[in-house]
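P.,

For your records, the input lines for the assembly:
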Amino acid sequence: MSSQASRLKVIKLGELLQRSIWDVDEERHIEVLKQEGLRVKALILLCPMGCYSLAGDKLIMSYEGCVECGTCRVLSGSDQIRWEYPKSGRGIQYRYM
Amino acid sequence: MNVTSKFDIIVVGAGPAGCASAYLLAKAGFKVLVLERGRGAGSKELWGGKAYAQPLREVWPELDKEAPIHRWVSKERFSLVWGERALTIEYKLGRKVAFTTYLTELVNWMARKAENAGAIIVDEVRVDEIVVKEGRVLGVKSGGDTVYADAVIDAEGVNRLLLEKLGLVEKLNPDHIALGVKEVLSLNPNLIEERFMLGKDEGLAWFVTGDVTLGLPGGGFIYTMRDSISIGLVLPIGPAAKAAEAGLLKEHVSSLVEAFRLHPYFRNLWREADVIEYGGRMTIEAGLKLMPRKLYMNGLLVVGDAAGFLVNTGYTIRGVDTAVTSGKLAAEALIEAFNNGGPTEENLKSYEEKVKKSYIYRELKNHSSIGDVMSDPFFFQKLPQVAIRAASKLFEADYEEPKLIRSFLDAAREEDVSSLKIIYKLGRVVGKL
Amino acid sequence: MRIAVGIKWVPNTQAVRFDPETGTLIRKGIPSIVNPHDLPAIEMALRLRDAVGGEVIAFTMAPPPAVKGLELALGMGVDRAILITDRVFAGADTLATSYVLANAISKVEREYGKVDLVVFGQETIDSSTAHIPGQVASWLDWPYVYYVKDIQVLGDGRIRVVRELEDYIEEYEIELPAVLGIAVRALKPRPVSLYNKLRAKLNKDTIVVWGNSELKLDPRCVGLKGSPTIVAKTIDMPEVPRKKEVYKPRDPRDAARWIVSKIVEDEKLRELLVKKLWGG
Ligand SMILES: Cc1cc2nc3c(=O)[nH]c(=O)nc-3n(C[C@H](O)[C@H](O)[C@H](O)COP(=O)(O)OP(=O)(O)OC[C@H]3O[C@@H](n4cnc5c(N)ncnc54)[C@H](O)[C@@H]3O)c2cc1C
Ligand SMILES: Cc1cc2nc3c(=O)[nH]c(=O)nc-3n(C[C@H](O)[C@H](O)[C@H](O)COP(=O)(O)OP(=O)(O)OC[C@H]3O[C@@H](n4cnc5c(N)ncnc54)[C@H](O)[C@@H]3O)c2cc1C
Ligand code: SF4
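Structure tokens returned:
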């Protein structure tokens, strides 16, 4: 029976993100304002949804997969990151948490 | 009533704290408006999985019958894992103390209770500012719209954008905050009951420490739900960020959670289970340190996580019952204040007094030094290694089994830690747990 | 001006996942949302109302939970909302859906007065037929323009609409009443506002519910019975694992050759393309 098959395989982050649901806003709610002084390594490894990544030396923030946890906000200054909650109930839509 | 009419009370945030306040105040006949940024109450909530029932019953006596309870916790387990080895302790409870459920569901239920009691719940609306004039809170603002009330209850949770803006609290310190990262694994209830040796409606709460966090402060949790299992890791953000910068943490946190799911000691419990949801949320590590300078001001009360009311004992996180209790105390204080001429600063003082007399504050004080343990790498690296090594001497002896004390002393020596240090540290930690 | 805007309550298809174990789509527990392509239509209607006055009425044919979607429209500033819901409407194809919607418009006219304009989204994310707006226009026998990016009210009972196509722009002057399909991303939808949402909560009659006892349509023309469409065959396309290769030739013709050679050499990819283009 297929439902009995083992699922003991590593799921990559990109695939894990497919398991959750967002209603993504057109407008970004988080924005990197200034990269200097940002704790880049920590942001990349700790943002649970992998929203932060490097393109060369430039820190890229993809707000689409953000779950609004606030970790990056705690790790940064308000002059480095603009951080807001999405409007109109958009963003992550948890169901079984 | 129209949109510019004044409410008696505005509650910001339909979490456990906000819903408890709103429910009691609406039931007492006040005009209550609850503003929630999420789509439906609960859609932004994530927790581990276990709520203590008694404090909730004090607000909703019908809890056991009506609330979306998945399983009553009948077993508590603790495991120390290191490498291939693991040491587990289990306790079977004798009565219904706590239950497991999805917080998304529980909060949705709480919000419906408040709504049925007469509170107006407006979702999909983000509050941008608490409006203050001359030291008195007048209402809240969202976009260009302001709604007025005699009193505002701030129940915005741990990420306190509004309180920071108001200047009532400082920006969060990463050392006082932890990140929870979680997976929900769907599994047939029969398999859950068989594998965890549970009866129908019985649940298990499991705390895991050791190298599931790669030796970083923090730990793992496992909760059995009705037809799923919640697993995840909680990592204090300060030490984790430092480890990332020092190159000690090389992988993304999601890989740690995946390694936990696939850990040889645990994985067969849920080998067929599909990951149906993945996410993260912040929680409080050191509650007292988050407490605002004042829990109230003229026309404002702060409840729940926003006030730092979360008891983190190092092995359990109790935030929902404390949030509900603080919401209840705030409602009681407000009702008294309204009977005494209004929610002035003077009249709201009783809220802080009520909190200080309650179990929340005692518990916070009791467990306040757990932060020292949580930030001491010793407890997450050396100690588990010594314990596991000692256990391996006891249980993996081919011929001769050493005495308990001998195995411990040898393990300590081989791990290059003084046994006195261990005893001293353990003595301290036992006092703190 | 009285403007009606049709919205559809759709499963958030972004979240519909393929289960490789069972070979089916996992739809369980997927919450529904307002079809994202309808938000620009709502925005368009609101802008017209704000400019020339009048009212905007949102309507949807859907099961009762779609009230959440109507609340969102009200939160954006729509004046009233109509939920068209009835067991007999269930199982409808686009023909039966548009028949009900067109009759709902007629009832709106009877209840609230003349409707000048009906706007729809371009298409839905769950079916994407883009049939509904055109069919509603046919039932009503009103003019219809599709892929609209901009509307100007001319004031003499006429409007000018702008369609922006791939390499040219068309402008039409049409007489009201009319039906329009608004292009995807034509306008950025405004967020839900506190006042609008609160107003909708405080006035319970901003949302009305119509079933077939109100619309009084022949049960043979609605729902499953009124739906001549049959699904002859569905083919689930297998999931194609993505591969990444970068080739940067100076001459674009080399790039073309390279792509063709990739397709020719990769047997799996070849099979997949053949299947996709010619159904196997
Ligand atoms: C990983 C993890 C595991 C946990 N495990 C447990 C556990 O097993 N047991 C337990 O008892 N507790 C646990 N907790 C803690 C518990 O979840 C919280 O303590 C509890 O949810 C706090 O309730 P609250 O009402 O104060 O705040 P929250 O639950 O955070 O609610 C705040 C609400 O306000 C809304 N909001 C915020 N800002 C705005 C705004 N500006 N405008 C409008 N709305 C706003 C939010 O959307 C949210 O709905 C855990 C937490 C985490 C992160
Ligand atoms: C072959 C086929 C068979 C089908 N069989 C069934 C079936 O058995 N059961 C079933 O439930 N569905 C069925 N459907 C789906 C259903 O017919 C369509 O989803 C529905 O008619 C709307 O069509 P659409 O989603 O393609 O909308 P489109 O025409 O792509 O939508 C364009 C715009 O019309 C408006 N609109 C669309 N639907 C509504 C609505 N309900 N209320 C108000 N405004 C709306 C929106 O503004 C939207 O942006 C079938 C569809 C097809 C193509
Ligand atoms: S808020 Fe959380 S999920 Fe969103 S980007 Fe920051 S760390 Fe990532």
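Two observations worth noting. Chain C touches chain B at residues 19, 21, 29, 68, 71-72, 75, 191-195, 197-199, 201-202 (CB under 8 Å). Residues 94 and 131 of chain C are 6 Å apart (CA to CA).

Regards
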